[in-house]
Design brief:
transmembrane helix; DoxX; 5 helices; mainly alpha
């Protein structure tokens, strides 16, 4: 008998190494970008933050800090459950949340005439959707057993 799989072999296909690496890279980038944005919005004084992100000076401190916490939660959720293999399905939920956040951020910036910042929103949306697709169907991470 040949060591290669036959056409009648019904075992699930393993995701390619390139796909698995690409997903880890995307998750790591999302983690870094969302956590950086979150920490910045949570801990930077509003006057300084408004110089970097003008909209933050126009809304309540509570709103800005809440957005920062949401960014931070998304960043942690997109990577840590998969990395630790503790409830890795939470990565899929975090990807949905991050994608949704970027849709709203895109609309928010367009409504304010800040189209110049929307390419980052589009990139983050694309990476979030890639992780959602990959971790929900093509290369899910198995929980600790």
């Amino acid at each position: 008998m040949s060591s290669t799989a036959s056409t009648t072999d019904l075992s699930p296909l393993q995701p390619s190494l390139a796909l698995r690496i690409s997903l880890w890279v995307a998750q790591t980038l999302l983690f870094a970008l969302f956590c950086f944005a979150g920490v910045t919005k949570v801990f930077t004084p509003i006057k300084e933050l408004a110089q970097m992100m003008p909209w933050t000076g126009e809304y309540s401190v509570a709103f800005v800090r809440t957005i920062g916490l949401i960014d931070l939660a998304g960043g942690l959720g997109i990577l840590l459950p998969s990395l630790t293999r503790i409830m890795p399905r939470l990565t899929v939920l975090a990807a949905i949340g991050c994608a949704t956040l970027q849709v709203f951020a895109f609309a928010f910036h367009i409504s304010r005439g800040e189209a110049a910042v929307t390419p980052l929103n589009i990139l983050l949306l694309a990476l979030s959707l890639f992780v959602l697709w990959g971790r929900s169907s093509k290369a899910p991470v198995a929980p600790r057993g």
